[in-house]
């Protein structure tokens, strides 16, 4: 009769099993750490998006007047009727985009300039170089645009946060 061997042959499968468990646990720890970072970053991104949406929801503008002072000139008065200060981002006249430039003394130049005023009509450019229109304040846009008499134009003004005001105006 042979004696059963105890010892070396039984060690190899046991070490293999322990090594397999150690590798599995290591991979699990790595995946856990990655998922925690992923979910923390994702929740921060969602929080930032939510804050931006809340800010955009507080933003609202309205076009109060459109004037055609002379040929090739359009003047637009835009009121901030929202809950936060706004910065004008763009102007469209009949779907033609016109770049807006903030200027403390707007002129009918290339292609459109604007200035902001507080609710009492005081120009605010001296202390706000970015041209932010305060709550209840307004802006005057002076744009160069070739218009025709008795023609109706669609005017759209947008803010940098995406709020849009539009109206139709007929040239004299």
Structure report:
- This protein has one helix at residues 8-57, and strands at 61-67, 73-80, 88-93, 96-98, 100-102, 112-117, 138-144, 152-159, 164-170.
- The protein folds into 2 domains: 1-57; 61-170, Immunoglobulin-like, CATH 2.60.40.
- By secondary structure, the protein is of the alpha+beta class.
Secondary-structure map:
Blueprint: H1 8-57, E1 61-67, E2 73-80, E3 88-93, E4 96-98, E5 100-102, E6 112-117, E7 138-144, E8 152-159, E9 164-170
Parallel strand pairs: 5-6
Antiparallel strand pairs: 1-2, 2-7, 3-4, 3-8, 6-7, 8-9
Whole-number count of domains: 2
Shape: rod-shaped
The class by helix and strand makeup works out as alpha+beta
Helix content estimate: 25-40%
Mean pLDDT: 85
Number of DSSP E strands: 9
Low-confidence stretches: none
Proportion of beta-strand residues: 25-35%
The CATH class of the largest domain is Mainly Beta
How many H/I helical runs? 1
**Widest β-sheet, arrangement of strands:** 1-2-7-6-5
- Cα radius of gyration in angstroms: 32 Å
Task: Write the element-wise H/E pattern from the N-terminal end onward.
Answer: HEEEEEEEEE
CATH topology grouping of the largest domain: Immunoglobulin-like
Largest sheet: 5 strands, mixed
Quickly give the CATH architecture of the largest domain.
Sandwich
Q: What distance lies between the first and last C-alpha atoms, to the nearest angstrom? A: 120 Å
């Amino acid at each position: 009769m042979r004696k059963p061997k105890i010892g070396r042959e039984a060690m190899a499968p046991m070490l293999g099993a322990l090594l397999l468990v150690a590798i599995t646990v290591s991979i699990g720890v790595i995946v856990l750490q990655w998922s925690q970072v992923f979910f923390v970053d994702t929740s921060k991104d969602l929080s930032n998006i939510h804050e931006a949406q809340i800010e955009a929801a507080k933003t609202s503008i309205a076009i109060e007047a459109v004037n055609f002072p002379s040929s090739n000139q359009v003047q637009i008065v835009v009121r901030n009727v929202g809950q936060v200060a706004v910065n004008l981002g763009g102007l469209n006249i009949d779907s033609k985009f016109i770049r807006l430039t903030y200027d403390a003394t707007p002129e009918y130049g290339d292609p459109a300039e604007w200035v902001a005023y507080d609710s009492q009509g005081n120009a605010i450019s001296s202390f706000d170089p970015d041209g932010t229109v305060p709550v209840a304040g307004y802006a005057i846009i002076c744009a160069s645009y070739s218009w025709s008499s008795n023609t109706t134009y669609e005017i759209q003004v947008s803010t940098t946060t995406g709020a849009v005001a539009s109206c139709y105006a007929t040239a004299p």
